[in-house]
Amino acid sequence: MKSLKTLFLVALLMALAITLSATSSETEEPKSLRETSRFLSQNGRVALTCDKNPKICLIKGSSGPDCCSNKCVNFSTDRLNCGRCGKKCSFGKICCEGKCVNPKTNEKHCGKCGNKCNAKGSCVYGMCSYA
């Protein structure tokens, strides 16, 4: 009977030790990015927005130099903001130099932006001098 009480006491102490070690690790700072929360506002950080600070879009690695609807975009190439904020290119068109063009037929942007066909060639199906 005494050994059963001792075994129960040891099990109780082990459970208490595990509980205490689990709660103390939650208050520690994470050691890697995998342990961080996806919600940065919970960590007390303030997200910088281009509506309040447009120079953010000029930082290296930004998706574009222009600010539109609180996002950094490139008005020269963005299909959803072509030339200006909110101007969407229709189906089948791409944004080149801030204008919506059809890459299948446009001789200055044949197949992709900046792919210019020579003087004799024409753009058909996105290829210069097809057939």
Description:
This protein has 131 residues and is of the alpha+beta class. It is built from 1 helix and 6 strands. It has one helix at 2-26; strands at 66-68, 71-73, 94-96, 99-101, 123-124, 127-128. The strands form 3 sheets. A two-stranded antiparallel ribbon has the order 1-2. The radius of gyration is 30 Å and the shape is elongated.
Record field, number of beta strands: 6
Q: Indicate the proportion of strand residues.
A: 5-15%
Structural class: alpha+beta
Contiguous uncertain segments of 5+ residues: 24-30
The secondary-structure element order is HEEEEEE
Sum up the overall morphology in one term.
elongated
**Count of DSSP H/I helices:** 1
Mean pLDDT: 79
Distance between the termini: 96 Å
What is the radius of gyration?
Answer: 30 Å
What topology, given as strand order, has the largest sheet?
1-2
Q: How many strands, what sense, and barrel or not for the largest sheet?
A: 2 strands, antiparallel
Fraction of residues in helix: 10-25%
Task: Chart the SSEs and their pairings.
Layout: H1 2-26, E1 66-68, E2 71-73, E3 94-96, E4 99-101, E5 123-124, E6 127-128
Antiparallel strand pairs: 1-2, 3-4, 5-6
Brief sketch in words of this structure:
By secondary structure, the chain is of the alpha+beta class. It has one helix at residues 2-26, and strands at residues 66-68, 71-73, 94-96, 99-101, 123-124, 127-128.
Features:
131 residues, two-stranded antiparallel sheet, single chain, alpha+beta, two-stranded antiparallel ribbon, 1 helix
